[in-house]
Predict the structure.
Amino acid sequence: MNRKRYVLLDRDGTMIVEREYLADPAGVALLAGAAEGMRLLQAAGFGLVVITNQSGIGRGYFDEAALTAVHERLRELLAAEDVSIDGIYFCPHVEREQCLCRKPRTGLVEQAAHDFHFDPKQSYVVGDKAIDVELGQAIGAVSLLVRTGYGAEHERKQTCRPDFIVDDLRAAAETIIADVQLR
Ligand SMILES: [Mg+2]
Ligand SMILES: [Zn+2]
């Protein structure tokens, strides 16, 4: 088992600007503070894994090649900020397919934990929706809701009970780095 801890990051509305069914690499825009937050986490020794629902594939709005192009652009933007993501895991399904990987279900985390040999219970989950917080709770991780993307709306409607609510990914990183010292 890897002693390294991992932060499991939602993509849309958490790392990059939320655009419904993003399929164009030109539409990838890092949110303010996102790259800095990820850089802080990497400097503190955390691995970074993206866990994202991409039902646009299951709906036929775009294909996996388009998603790959979006992720290549994301990696390129992050590389320019000295950030390197360890892995990107996506669910291509729609709800009615009842797959095991669509958040808040845990299939993608199990795959990542298998690939990188980490304990999901020792990880942190950061996202802008209740499903992200529910994923964190399902795997026994610490969950953080960011106010970017749909996060402020989820906070206002009290749709979930995250361990922490923070403004953005940079604040999430600072919170995680402080919290991990206490564990
Ligand atoms: Mg999101
Ligand atoms: Zn799925």
Remarks:
- The chain has a mean pLDDT of 97.
- The pocket of magnesium ion (ligand 1) is lined by residues 10, 12-14, 127-129, 149 (CB under 6 Å).
- The longest helix spans residues 64-79.
- The CA atoms of residues 61 and 91 lie 14 Å apart.
